[in-house]
Amino acid sequence: MISEAPKLRSPRVIKLHVVQGEHRVSSDPEVSLLTILGSCVAACLYDPLRGVGGMNHFLLADGDGEEAMRYGAYAMEVLINDLLKLGASRERLQAKLFGGAKIMERLNDIGAENVLFARRFLATEGIPVVGESLGGRRARRVEFWPVGGRARQREVDQFMETAATRPAINKVAVDEIELF
């Protein structure tokens, strides 16, 4: 009798993008959260015992108004509140911070202001920062696994793209598109 080797199931990977002014939380071990940061900051918070975590992406340290999620205080509060709703304990939360680069020399150092805000906010809340990659002059692509708190980053060489530097887009016939 010939037996067939068991089929190996490839792990399901769900990559969720977090753009400016957004946040996401998850308790799914197959989820990773992705973002690209310049002067913005992303706070990745997680409860290692409960296995829940999340990421936000805020544009400016201070502000209010119609687009409150773009600002640090609001972004941090909604992230923490959503983690608590998933069963996280405020006392066990840990943070990893990314971003805050000074991409454009001639502009104010918004990144430094964002970094200062994030560090102060977390210190005030008693949430330890267990890892960070902040400042510098290059954008970052960050991936965070909220259940275990693992994070990785890659510096992005070409962050700012203009119409002059963007490659021409060739029109493709519908039958030439391959989906995978």
Q: How many strands?
A: 9
Supply Rg.
19 Å
Q: Major sheet: size, sense and barrel closure? A: 5 strands, mixed
Q: Mean pLDDT, as a whole number?
A: 83
Q: Please estimate the helix content.
A: 10-25%
Strand content: 25-35%
User: Low-confidence parts lasting 5 or more residues at pLDDT below 50?
Assistant: 159-180
Structural class: alpha+beta
Biggest sheet, strands in spatial order? 2-5-4-6-7
Distance between the termini: 37 Å
From the spread of the alpha carbons, the general shape counts as globular
Oligomer: single chain
SSE pattern: EEEEEHEHEEE
Q: Give the number of helices.
A: 2
Give a structural overview.
The protein is of the alpha+beta class and 180 residues long. 17% of the residues lie in helices and 29% in strands. It has helices at residues 72-85, 110-125; strands spanning 14-17, 23-26, 31-37, 41-47, 52-56, 94-99, 129-134, 139-145, 150-156. Strands 2-5-4-6-7 form a 5-stranded mixed β-sheet, with helices on one face. A 4-stranded mixed β-sheet has the order 1-3-8-9, with no helix packed on it. A hairpin with a 4-residue loop joins β8 and β9 (150-156). It is globular, with a radius of gyration of 19 Å. It starts with 13 loop residues before the first strand and ends in a 24-residue tail after the last strand.
